[in-house]
Design a protein that fits this description.
The longest helix has 25 residues, at 451-475. The protein has helices at 16-31, 52-62, 78-90, 101-113, 129-137, 184-194, 210-219, 250-255, 260-268, 283-289, 304-317, 320-332, 346-353, 363-371, 379-382, 391-406, 413-427, 431-443, 451-475; strands at residues 3-6, 35-40, 69-73, 94-97, 143-146, 152-157, 161-166, 174-176, 199-203, 226-230, 233-234, 300-301. The mean pLDDT is 94. Helix 9 (260-268) packs across helix 11. 33% of the residues are buried. It folds into 4 domains: 1-71 and 231-317, HUPs (Rossmann fold, 3-Layer(aba) Sandwich); 78-230, HUPs (Rossmann fold); 319-371; 379-475, Arc Repressor Mutant, subunit A. With 476 residues, it is mainly alpha-helical. The strands form 5 sheets. Strands 1-2-3 form a 3-stranded parallel sheet, covered by helices on one side. The chain has a 3-stranded antiparallel sheet with strand order 4-5-8. It is elongated. It binds one RNA strand of 75 nucleotides through helix 4, strand 7, helix 6, strand 12 and helix 11.
Length: 476
RNA sequence: GGUCCCAUCGUCUAACGGUUAGGACAACAGGUUUUCAUCCUGUAAAUCGGAGUUCGAUUCUCCGUGGGAUCACCA
């Protein structure tokens, strides 16, 4: 059975790159009817961020990336790691290192000065038994290092095929830190084996440390899982996506009002495509169609333009009811909002602004003209050079439209259009000279749905009230 | 610097060694339209360079160039 995992460290928010890794691991597990495990890699107590484990889980759930097992916490499994570290120690595949931070810094400084690649010189490996015992007795803190053999290691990456590294270039990796906690490398390997992970799907930044992991599997007598190293997500300047150059937390995009469908669809296509010209995919469709061998090798620039388009698409695709439910929490945060502003027309209001919304966050502002009791008119808005509308024209348009609409009983788009067209013809003005003032009177906005639709959606009572109020204001 | 990875329109990408190098987003130009959107039509836009293999390279090989990742008691 296929078992994948997502193994973030709780050092802050969930990175969009992390989200994509989680998504791919999830898709691969689901499509193979396998298991998806969540594991928290919290072996560095210094970098732990309060609340990050909770928010990590919330975000994954928000995107419906549900895991079958976990979350497991590495900080609760330290006994296991120590056991295997000791085993390697006994077998001579690892050794204790008593070097201090200063020793190591000094060593590295010397090496860089001599233009050699910085690498641990194994001085502690040569320590004789008496000296070693003396240090242990004196309780000198030590780390456990993995002994890296001078030989080649190869493995097959699902995305990059044959990978080849040589031990001469790899440092004797620390396995257990002096505080007794394991490093990523040890904990990761032990857990992946212990949890039966069959496919390690992770970012490309892990490629260089994979040989260490392979040697660890071998020294522990285990069969390594299959690896798939995902291409990086990039800044516009093609460096690794970073906070300096924009929002990188998945939450940021939720807060910006992007739909989960859009974010998921967008992120799935950064590095993968189905090989056809289809590009609109739901999570379920992705489960069906995803494949690791269609994953790209090169990094992908995290460019929001496509996300905006996808978001608009999914916004328009929603039913007004679903959309209204998503907007509601945002509406409730508005200072002007109160529950009794809602009436049975609400869904029609939502429907009328739907094609205009770029994100959920546009909702409150676009709905406000429909919901507010009184608009605080901005007189300058009524005037439009382009529409050839001056103050006198505004007053005239409103004065002429009002009585016509008052006598109109059939308040449908067509009837309203016919009614106003007659007035316009009689006045001998241009459409815009009538419709622009009406639109501003109805919404106090520069952009809005069409006037006929506006009138119908608002209803006779509210719309006429708006027109009268506006007329009073303009005449005052 | 060592090691490793990568390379098609601005961006995401497609193309059994044979295509007028395709699509989408963005851009631009039109159409629909009272505004803004939506919607429709169209235009422009790419194989990093050089060798080699081949009847034929975007595709395979080598070299170069460019970009990136990584070299911690962080993950």
């Amino acid at each position: 059975m296929v078992v994948t995992r997502f193994a973030p460290s709780p050092t802050g928010f969930l990175h969009v790159g992390g989200l994509r890794t989680a998504l791919y691991a999830y898709l691969f597990a689901r499509q193979n009817k396998g298991k998806f495990i969540l594991r928290i890699e919290d072996t560095d107590q210094k970098r732990f961020v309060e609340g990050s484990v909770e928010s990590l889980q919330e975000v994954l759930k928000f995107f419906d990336l549900n895991w079958d097992e976990g979350p497991y916490f590495q900080s609760q499994r330290t006994e296991l790691y120590r056991k295997f570290a000791n085993q390697l120690l006994d077998e001579g595949k690892a050794y204790r290192c008593f070097c201090t931070e200063e020793d190591l810094e000094q060593m590295r400084a010397d090496q860089t000065a001599r233009k050699i690649a910085p690498k641990y010189d194994r001085r502690c490996r040569e320590l004789n038994p008496e000296k070693m015992q003396a240090k242990l007795d004196a309780k000198v803190p030590f780390v456990i290092r993995q002994f890296i053999p001078y030989e080649e290691v190869t493995f097959t990456d699902l995305i990059r095929d044959e990978m080849r590294f040589h031990g001469r270039d790899v440092d004797d990796q620390v396995l257990i830190k002096s505080d007794g906690f394991p490093t990523y490398h040890l904990a990761n390997v032990v857990d992946d084996h212990d949890m039966g992970i069959t496919h390690v799907i992770r970012g490309e930044e892990w490629l260089p440390s994979t040989p260490k992991h392979i040697w660890l599997y071998r020294d522990l007598g285990w069969t390594p899982p299959t690896f798939a190293h995902l291409p990086l997500l990039l800044n516009p300047d093609r460096t690794k996506l970073s906070k300096r150059q924009g929002d990188v937390a998945a939450e940021d995009y939720i807060k910006k009002g992007y739909l989960k469908e859009a974010i998921l669809n967008f992120i799935a296509f950064l590095g993968w495509n189905p090989g056809t010209e289809e590009e609109l995919f739901t999570l379920d469709q992705l489960v069906e169609r995803f494949s690791l061998d269609r994953v790209q090798k090169g990094g992908a620039v995290f460019n929001l333009e496509k996300l905006d388009w996808l978001n608009g698409h999914y916004m328009r695709e929603k039913s007004p009811k679903d959309l209204a439910e998503l907007i509601m929490p945002l509406l409730e945060r508005e200072p002007w909002f109160s529950k009794n502003l809602l009436n049975d027309q609400f869904l029609t209001f939502v429907a009328s602004v739907q094609t205009r919304m770029k994100s959920l966050n546009d909702g409150p502002a676009m709905l406000r003209p429909f919901l507010l009791e009184n608009l605080d008119y901005n007189e300058a808005l009524f005037l439009s050079e382009k529409m050839k509308v001056d103050k006198a024209m505004v007053a005239l348009a409103l004065e002429q439209a009002l009585p016509a609409l008052e006598t109109l009983n059939d308040y449908t788009d067509d009837a309203i259009k016919e009614c106003l067209t007659k007035v316009i013809e009689k006045m001998g003005v241009k459409n815009g000279q009538m419709l622009w003032p009406l639109r501003v009177a109805l919404t106090n906005e520069e952009y809005s749905p069409g006037v006929f639709e506006l009138l119908r959606v608002m209803g006779k009572e509210l719309s006429l009230k708006r027109l009268r109020t506006a007329l009073d204001k303009i005449k005052a």
